[in-house]
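chain below, 483 aa
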Amino acid sequence: MINKHLKSLLNMPAFLLVVATTSFNVSPIAHAEPRKRNVLLICVDDLRPELACYGASYIHSPNIDQLASKGRVFRHHYVQAPTCGASRFTLLTGRYGGASNNALFQRSAIMASDPQSITPSMPAWFRQSGYRTVSVGKVSHHPGGRGGKDWDDDDNLEMPNAWDRHLLPAGPWQHPRGWMHGLANGEIRVNAADMDLFQSCEGSDSIYPDGISVDEALRQMDQLSSVHDKPFFLAVGILRPHLPFGAPAKYLELYADAELPPTAHPIKPEGKTTWHGSGEFMKYNRWNRNPNTDADFALQVRKHYAACVSYADAQVGRLIERLHNTGEFENTIVVLWGDHGWHLGEHAIWGKHALFEESLHSPLIVSYPGINRPGDSTNSIVETLDLFPTLCDLTGIPKPTFVDGISLRSLLDNPESSGHPAIAYRANAKTIRTNAHRLILHKDGYAELYDHTSEAKETKNIADTNAAIVKQLTEQLQSRLGN
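prediction:
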């Protein structure tokens, strides 16, 4: 329920969605002095680890690259699920969960009926530990954190008790659902077949949805930085490069003459896999063209995706610049996290939702003043689950005992430290990624085993000739997921 007194005190514009929630009944001890480090968590939707700081030299990502130069790039970070809602569940709870986009709403429903059975979310834990917690944009699955027809129902919260304020300025896109699938100047998706797959219009950053949501994030950062009685946990969700691929024309111009590398293994795999027909992508207006059979169209798609990445990068730059201007940069941990990967034609997939490498591999950068060996990257495998305990470790608040991940502090101190295998799942299959292999185990017991030390990587299933490895990795999967 909205706290009307708080809303009036903060004098929020009418187009903002605001939640002030009650505190959780299980609280770690809060410490007022000395003031702890702030956290700026930047969540980017559908972002592949295809950035200049990850070795993609043709991508223009100067702001993310600058952040990487001051922190630690995790080159082998994997999410728990190849879909937005389930992946964000694990980020925000630190626990394995459901495989659907409704995972957080399902958690909310259980909280309503049996609150003692649900452990605190990451923002709730920080809130209980003396932090102001604010979310802007798409941080949980629904921008603004509500359900209902247009995702704006104040009585249907995605994450109760988590945020002091959970905001989404819909602007000309009318409501959070419209903002989520919006193109330039307020165009919202009614029928995907009538909405262009990609678009690039002349204008400022604010003609697309991220521009106005980041404007609000900057206002929130100013407000949080002006009050020094508590540290802040500010989460900002950047929508692009989510479909449809819309970004101001100046970002597409960066790629007008760019030479993009060839797409790796673009052929549809044979045999049983988690391949799918790219339904989320194909339902948009594609002008009767298919990137799997039309090389020129595939290149256009990739360039528009790249333009969206550069647009997202510009929003990251605005956030970091304002953090400097507030004087809080030296006391803030900055995390940039991609909610999952995205296929751009690999395995003849355009999208996520598979359990191949491209769907599960996403960027993770952690930066803070005083980090050891800033700019060095690590090749050790880590998971999204690890962020909750890591941020507790870095801020000095109590580390929860109920999370499934582990702190990455050792890798932040020494990038050569060991990582650990990564687990992921979807409704009908689950997978484990080690340094050498990926095992995908289907619900009916069928196994895909891929050798990442070979040139074939995830194009040749070697399960039939490597029963011992399949057995070993299956046991690890069952041990981690409990089934």
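The radius of gyration is 21 Å. Residues 1-32 have pLDDT under 50 and may be disordered.
thats it, cya
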